[in-house]
Design a protein that fits this description.
mainly alpha; 5 helices; 93 residues
């Protein structure tokens, strides 16, 4: 699992440094932080709605969208998935 997140994160970083015109990630990054956090908010609401009656598959799909957009925010800020993992580990004492 972590290997896939690492691969995805590397792809997102590549889209930041070498944007491709047809890339959704590149367009999201170009839109700036306001656009990214707007998408995070939308996806968070969709996770909640899925949990309130749309079934487990919808929860999985919407959670994937939320995590993807959170990763884009991390990339835009120069943060990493490891930063998040370290924070979670520090809380697990």
């Amino acid at each position: 699992m972590s290997d896939f997140i690492d691969q995805l994160f590397a792809t997102l970083q590549d889209r930041k440094t070498s944007p491709k015109p047809s890339s959704y990630t590149a367009s999201l990054l170009a839109g700036g932080e306001d656009e990214i956090v707007k998408k995070i908010g939308e996806e968070a609401v969709e996770v909640i709605l899925a949990a309130k009656g749309q079934g487990n598959q919808r929860i999985i799909e919407e959670s994937a969208d939320l995590i993807y957009h959170l990763l884009v925010l991390l990339v835009s800020r120069g943060l990493s998935w490891d930063d998040i993992c370290q924070e979670l580990a520090s809380r697990h004492k």
